[in-house]
Amino acid sequence: MKKMILPGFLSYFLCVFMAYAQSEPNSFYVNKGTWELSGNMALSFADSYTDSGQSDNDLNSFGLSLMPELGYAIADQLTLGAGIGFVYNTSKNNNGISKQEDNYRSLRFAPFVKKYIRVAKPLYFTLKGSASYETGKQEHFDNGQKNGENNFDNCAVGVSPGVSVFLNDRFAFQSQIGFLGYRHHKTEAPNGGKSRVDRFSLDFNTTQFFFGLAYYF
């Protein structure tokens, strides 16, 4: 009996959505001329301490990621826009003998095109195509002295599926699930060392899941 509850609820809501869609066949939320303000933000803190009896270890970390996006509907249910963001991460480790610190900073620019596909009036599937460029620096310090630095550049071109659930004409919950496309990563060190990685992949790890709120005006 319990195994039938979830499929029953899903079937019920699907019927409601389909009936709603059929009752207003020409009513859309993302009409031509609509602006869309959205994006994602992540904030993290961590603080840990261990004592083995012979030595102790104190680890602190902080991370901030911000990526606002602005889009414009060039046609019904089709938006064109771009996002500009930054990422900052730092971690500090003190074992009582030495102090180590790692810093990561980057800037990112990502134009996109997004298609809304209506399932029912409040529910839309989305398909987002994007091309992004990110540039930044990684630094490592030992006891306050810098002993490592890398400059990096990341490029990506691909598509991401998602879901938007509209609360009203102005607000919608959005999710982005996974990424299919090409990625390029290049790293350069001050001593002349270089590395490069090129790959085409389908990613469904947790770093490719985004949830947020969008505002339409």
UniProtKB/TrEMBL annotation:
Keywords assigned by UniProt, alphabetized: Signal
Signal sequence, renumbered to the chain: 1-21
Record has Signal as a keyword: yes
Alphabetical list of InterPro entries matching this protein: OMP/PagP_B-barrel
This protein's record includes keyword Signal: yes
Highest rank taxon of the organism: Bacteria
Protein name according to UniProt: Uncharacterized protein
Organism: Sediminicola luteus
